[in-house]
């Protein structure tokens, strides 16, 4: 199925979870947030939150610097 990840179309397997897609986008273990269709998804819910056709997922990572 097709979803939009960080503004780019992507083919993902049916039933893919937020956690699976986040893992495919970044290897960061912390400082990562996800928003599905403009709603923040709690990290504890990533595994249990499936994606559907045409969903929009934004994966954000915190960057430190000055």
Automatic annotation (TrEMBL):
Name used for this protein in its record: Sulfur carrier protein ThiS
Source species: Actinomadura rubrisoli
Taxonomic lineage: Bacteria, Bacillati, Actinomycetota, Actinomycetes, Streptosporangiales
